[in-house]
Amino acid sequence: MSKLLRVLIILSFFVSTTILISRGFRSSKIPNGSKFDCANCHVNPNGGGARNAFGQAVESRVSPGGFEDFWDENLASLDSDGDGFTNGQELQDPSGSWRTGQSNPGDISLVTNPGDPNSKPDPTSVEETILPAKYELHNNYPNPFNPSTRISFTIPRNEFVLLKIYNIKGQAIKTLVNGNYPAGSYQFEWNGKDDNNVDVAAGVYIYSISAGHFNKSARMILLK
């Protein structure tokens, strides 16, 4: 057997093993993820290749090949595939309270694929939720803060939301939110780092939201 052939066999084994490992750990970090396995995140149900909209949302929350937990109330509240139902509603965890290692929530027979717009729940199986009546950008908490603070907002309808942090000179240093969100309440944490993951200096910062015709800004103080 030639040296080149041996190398190709080893590489093929490595790639296959990587795909299988990826399939196991990513689907296990989604509530009821075993029902659709790799199809939750990939266009190809066998895994690998292009990611669907839900898979792209997951990818943006983890490092390459990382084992981080990514399921939370924010991912649950998104309607990644645009079928009118949130990821949480499709996966039987509308509040996003499930955590890795816990028993699967709800009824797995009612689970649909959050990355496939043609896979959606029967409306009668989805609990009615009370939606906010107006746009709001709440005061961050804590403020002043060190090293992190939480910023929350509510929107009464589906909107493209942009939430950014600026320094006192008006320069954008961090994008916290950049995407479509259905009506609901959301909370995001800022850890005092910029978009390059570098710690910023102590001082006054401005967080600003744009959602449809709603625009609002507020100040916060980072201590060191």
Automatic annotation (TrEMBL):
Ranges where the record places region Disordered: 82-125
Family matches, as InterPro entries: FlgD/Vpr_Ig-like, S-S_Temptin, Secre_tail, Temptin-like
Biased composition (Polar residues): 86-116
Domain of life: Bacteria
One Pfam family here: FlgD_ig
The FlgD/Vpr Ig-like domain, residue ranges: 160-211
Record-annotated Temptin Cys/Cys disulfide domain positions: 28-115
Identification of the protein by name: Uncharacterized protein
Native source species: Melioribacter roseus (strain DSM 23840 / JCM 17771 / VKM B-2668 / P3M-2)
Lineage: Bacteria, Pseudomonadati, Ignavibacteriota, Ignavibacteria, Ignavibacteriales
